[in-house]
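Before a colleague's protein record goes any further, I have to sign it off. My question to you is simply how this chain folds and whether the tokens agree. I do not need a full report, just your reasoning and any doubts. This is what I was given:
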Amino acid sequence: MFHSLDIVIQYVASPFHLLYFITPKWIRRLVGPPRKPARAAKTARAFAREEVRNHKKNMSPGDPQDFTDFYLNQIVQSTGDPAATYDEHNLVKSMLDLFGAGIDTTAITLYWALLYMAAYPHIQATVQKELDDVLGPSPVICYDDRKRLPYTHAVVHEVLRYSSIFSTTFRRCTKDTVIQGFPIKKGTTIAAILYSSLFDPEQWKTPHQFNPNHFLDEDGNFVSKEAFVPFSAGHRVCVGEQIARIELFIVLSSLLQEFTFRAPEGVKEMNMKRQSKSFIVRPQPYTICAIPRSATGKEGPW
């Protein structure tokens, strides 16, 4: 399913998708949808529908276990309500939205994080020292530990800022308004460039450098920044922001507790160039070495 969603996402962000939809409708009907993305979408929908069927067979109405269970309960509860919009078709689309927007983005951010750790070994070493000094031999890292790990917490935030994997978000104006002197009519689609905030030289000391100190005060305490908006902002902020923050902190901290990441032998410099084949900005494909810290002679829970 992930592979299928990736095909669809890459197609939607491609010039071919735009070209397809600006052609007259009769041409689109004549040529039909592009075969590969259409097959991929069909595969993903079939997978989601099968999961819905499995949930309907096995769920206990009074004990929902996940989003799908809750949604199915809502369908039942809204039966007979002519204004209700809950149905299995919308459930399948919602499931695919959550997987497509929530899983791939977190994974790609981790790809960037490991690339940065290999590219900036002094930052990686500082994180590992903080983990060793604060957590000691503890084999489990919890999200609450971020309060005791300000540098590690700052590194996670800097990964999100510097990678800026989703730099543009779209909104529709709900009423006539004026922004910095420009009149915006109700119904206008607005493209908000998050990149402009995440790399604003008036907000960040070294915007085009990977610098965790952007999120630390003079005493080394973690500080948040209003310009930090990788998940967008407002009522339509990313619904998965909190779980993404939790996953990134725990997974990256756990990996750095166990491993040191380095470029392969003979590689002098990691490729930091960005590729954008879809809405999500990915790093160029790279190879990296994960060396168990026990092999380096470090003391700890390894």
Notes: The first helix runs from residue 2 to 12. Strands lie at 168-172, 177-179, 182-184, 189-193, 259-262, 274-275, 282-283, 289-292. The chain has ten helices and eight strands.
